[in-house]
Amino acid sequence: MTATTIRLPALERHFGDRAILPGDARFEAARAVWNGTVDTRPAAVLRCADAADVALALRIARAEGLPVAVRGGGHQIAGAAVVADGVVLDLSPMRYADISADGTVSVGGGALLGDLDRATDRVGRVVPAGTVSHTGVGGLTLGGGVGWLSPRLGLTCDSLISVDLVTAAGETRTVDAGTDPDLFWALRGLGANFGVATRFVFRTHPQGPVVAGRSEIPLDRAAEVLTRIGACAAELPRALGVLARLERPAAVPVLGVEWVWSADPADAAAAIRPLGLPAGTVRTRRFPAVQTTVDHRFPHGGRYYLKPAQLAELGPAQAEALVEGATRFPAGDPQLEVLRLGGAVADVPQEATAFPGRAAAFAVNVTASADDPALEAAQRRWARETHAVIAGLGTGGAYLNFADRELDLATVLGAPVHDRLRRVKHRLDPDDVFRPAQHITPRPEQ
Ligand SMILES: Cc1cc2nc3c(=O)[nH]c(=O)nc-3n(C[C@H](O)[C@H](O)[C@H](O)COP(=O)(O)OP(=O)(O)OC[C@H]3O[C@@H](n4cnc5c(N)ncnc54)[C@H](O)[C@@H]3O)c2cc1C
């Protein structure tokens, strides 16, 4: 199928060579997103450098009746950053992170986590975010944001002070807890539904060098170690981030337990002792270096399939289900990841933000990937079956930033939260211009 081609004087006059249309040598790269299974052909990719660009791009798209997608880092698993026969508002020119004297950081709508981590590290501070440096700050923050520092510092959106938002009507407004509490609540969890965030302002937190380690455990001991992590998680110091990953780095599956200690390096050994891990690598490093450690495990263009779940506890049943999933690993590069949450994430009252599932103790990702499309059917079957078992032992919820379009949003959010989001959506975007993967449809006040 060939995509719609738009050649509009207003578009070409204003965007010049920042308008990338089919036929342009840059078009294939401009439409590609992180997940190589996404093959969506938009009518135009418009590189937006500021809020005025975004407002104009929205006006052009809407006048032509074309659908719109917003692209931050392009990581959303279902490819929500592109839209068929529509206009992609590519925020990549807005890749900045500027520290202010008051200890806050202003971050452009198209910045990546690496941009944010490097800027804050230069002044010995941090914003808690994800674990892969090429992820977009935009999508991650608007959907919550979890990572190594979550138990100590909460979600990324918990450090958010304000958002500069261009609405569907093309108006720019600064949204914070004082100006529009209802919208600010909605932006922290389901934020991609309400407008284009051109600038985020975050509070930052002191951060020195961290101690990062990894131990590898054979599969026949993996359930025991996972169960021990689950048993001691609630008592572990909050400064200890833990990510257990069942994977197959060579011929046989193993459990890799990675951890990051973000308090005084001298206390790291005592902090990890309850995990009872075998000897492994341990290094004291600056935080941005840790944040790039697994970048190469998730390259752009790989063919990924991912299903998320949340666990209230990691007991023997959950541990055995995870290990059993690893014994059935299909070909390719499958992974089962378990990330420690709790602590500061759960300190924030559930009703304070739209983000669902703050009480979950662990987030789980079931990920399949392979270069060969012929392997995909078997991979997806494995991921769906494994996920069904693990999710059945979990909270019934999922971290929305890892979910595809199949998730039943009303069930995960609960009816009152879903209805409230639909009313905010009706006020901000009554014509339903913004349709991210976790899509809230407008609903008038009744
Ligand atoms: C390899 C990898 C590692 C990851 N690791 C983590 C992790 O450690 N922690 C974690 O919390 N999440 C993680 N994620 C999930 C990540 O949070 C989501 O994929 C998120 O959608 C990424 O945002 P993005 O801007 O890169 O993606 P995009 O696909 O560009 O955007 C995602 C959604 O947000 C919208 N959006 C993006 N920017 C803006 C903006 N400025 N204004 C309005 N809407 C916007 C888009 O329209 C789209 O609907 C990871 C994902 C991948 C692929």
UniProtKB/TrEMBL annotation:
InterPro entries: BBE, FAD-bd_PCMH, FAD-bd_PCMH-like_sf, FAD-bd_PCMH_sub1, FAD-bd_PCMH_sub2, FAD-linked_Oxase-like_C, FAD-linked_Oxidoreductase, Oxid_FAD_bind_N
Cofactor: FAD
Domain FAD-binding PCMH-type: 38-207
Source taxon at top rank: Bacteria
UniProt KW Heme keyword: no
Keywords associated with the record: FAD, Flavoprotein, Oxidoreductase
Entry annotated with the keyword Oxidoreductase: yes
Stated family: Belongs to the oxygen-dependent FAD-linked oxidoreductase family.
Protein name as it appears in the record: FAD-binding oxidoreductase
Protein species of origin: Amycolatopsis nalaikhensis
